[in-house]
Amino acid sequence: MSSGVEWGVHCCLTLAWLEGEGPVSTGRLAAWFDVPTEYLKKQLQALTRAGILESTPGVQGGFALARRPESITLMDVVTALEGADELFRCTEIRQSGVGGLGGGDEFRRPCGVSAAMLRAELAWRRELAAQTIADLMSASPEASAERTRRRYREMSRPLP
Amino acid sequence: MSSGVEWGVHCCLTLAWLEGEGPVSTGRLAAWFDVPTEYLKKQLQALTRAGILESTPGVQGGFALARRPESITLMDVVTALEGADELFRCTEIRQSGVGGLGGGDEFRRPCGVSAAMLRAELAWRRELAAQTIADLMSASPEASAERTRRRYREMSRPLP
């Protein structure tokens, strides 16, 4: 899985904590996590296309959660950033070589190897879909939310 | 996941069906599934290093299962071919940028994002570990095992 997933989930969690602070710019999020702005922008745009974030244009613009943290699952974030493709891709090699000759009716049923691999993948997806950004908020130390807001306000304060 | 996993699992299943036929060469397995010999060889060597296959050298040499099909799980095959690395890699971005400044004690506990992602991954691994090559044999149509043996004998018969 690309590092974009780590960034994406952390951005959602931080934006959940910063609810009410107005849109947060890509530059600030990039500095927040010390990650490259241009690559982070791609992840934020993908999350926006998926309806997880909403984007406000302009100099005061940036990103905020588009839905309640209870309604954003880890599966939503992973799918937005990595696509919905299976981890295991079945190319039906059971019937492509000389080993498959004469298989006929046997191949009407889905491949057992593929079914077994997908069963495991389903367990992964089910677990990702059962965990939301709100769950991550509850599981975090109380201090993290507070410190995030305090630090963000310091960072956003206009210079005197 | 690379296509090597599909090949690896299918090779194990086919070698389980061909138990008693002697070692099966890389060339025959490659023709069996119509996959490139050189790349397949790498997968077979990795499975051998992991103690899943045993390799017999020489002109009559090739590969056979090194353990009973009941003792080879899909997790074994995936780990042998893809390594044991996590799908999700945590790089601790929570503490690397300005957002992490002053976090101190909060970061003693494992990152909640990483923990949540790993929980899902564990569900995947658990399911892979619960399924063996013997399970794949039982789930396959009876005809597949028979046809595999018949076809392999035809393929191996010396020309008249």
UniProtKB/TrEMBL annotation, chains A, B:
GO terms for molecular function: DNA-binding transcription factor activity. Residues 139-160 are annotated as: Disordered. GO terms for cellular component: cytosol. It holds the Pfam family Rrf2. It comes from the Bacteria. PANTHER family: TRANSCRIPTIONAL REGULATOR-RELATED, WINGED HELIX-TURN-HELIX TRANSCRIPTIONAL REGULATOR, RRF2 FAMILY. This is BadM/Rrf2 family transcriptional regulator. It comes from Actinocorallia herbida.
